[in-house]
MFS transporter
Amino acid sequence: MNNTEIRGAASLAAVYVLRMLGLFMVMPVLAVLAMEFPDYSPLLVGLAIGGYGLTQALLQIPMGLLSDRIGRKPVIVLGLVLFAAGSALAAWADSLTWIVIGRIIQGAGAIAGAVMALAGDISRDSQRPKVMAVIGVAIGFSFYLALILGPLLARHFGLQGIFLVTALLAVACIPLVLFVVPTATNLAPSGDTLPRAGDLRSLLRTPALRRLNLSVFVLHLLITLLFVQLPNRLVLTGWPLADHWQLYLPVLILSVLGMVFLMRHLGNRMEAGLRWSIALMGLALAGMLQEPLALPALLVFVCLFFTGFNYLEANLPALVSSLAPAGKKGSAMGAYASCQFLGAFAGGVLSGLLNQYLSAEWIYLLAIGLCLGWQFWIRGIVSGAGHLKRYTLALNTQIRPVQESLEQLKQLAGVRDITLVEEEQAVYLKVDSSQFSLQQARQIMNP
């Protein structure tokens, strides 16, 4: 990567980390600290934990499309301002209801699509996967860091302090975006990074993508269900909230090692990895159904849950990218992200309702049932995806007619899908990399 790409990847990753910290730091503490509010109810707790997911899901795609019209940086700054405003409102809230409203406003700062599009704009085609990978790693890192920092900040500053820190971090990101993130120098074809409204309906009807969207919906529903229950269970074992980070740290380290073991042991057998991960999460939830449960056993089950969660969180987006039609990766990832956030919202609502009107056992039974069903609809989902790659070729109509070039491309070995976008002067290819020759394709486009 050149200096612009390195600076862009690092600064955008920093923006993502600081923003996602604000969303996630309250998850390991809110279920406990919410009891101090006069209008406390299990339903409001669930909404406070997962409420951000509703506005994230609804605005993710519109904000990305808006960035195509008015520019990436203005949309990102607008999103950060909304996020800071929601955080400040939650910080000064005197009721759990106002915290729910603050979290919903936080979610309105849906900048993921604009950030990814800007990352594409400032990187060359050959280096774009590296830039996206840096940002992807940052997203995962922010979640783990939030589980450690949340209880530590709560210990010294309480829930108000966490939200105030979150607001300050969002404000600090604004000059980072304006003055450190490079201005776009190499506009990426938008089909690679941004959704198109016209593509979404057809993609939602694609069986493999629909099953992946349902998978990420359930995955984030389950993680939200877990954090509505887990903090209070740890408190009941004798560990005060301020010390929970000492439990999360070794659990997260061991779960990452478990994920690495799964990846090495299973290799390219992606479907086996998905099945094992779902089975680990189901087993963990079945174990946590038991009451009472000693702390060592509870931590073992939490570790198993996160091992499966980590594997799925890392591999599901890669499958979406591989299975999306040529030129529609941005649309496929936009729909995927919306389902992810809807899952978080649904997890908050369902856990709150079940806690309030039934009992915690029903939450675990629901989660176990979802894992069992998941094993069926994931079957055969990765068939043929192992060698698929995608390329974007510049269209030059002055050299030869477009249809002639497309016909020659269709004849190349390994070409699975071709999408022509004339307004972008680009041809998108999805190919089997074990058979496809990129050099031959470039010769056809520029003889």
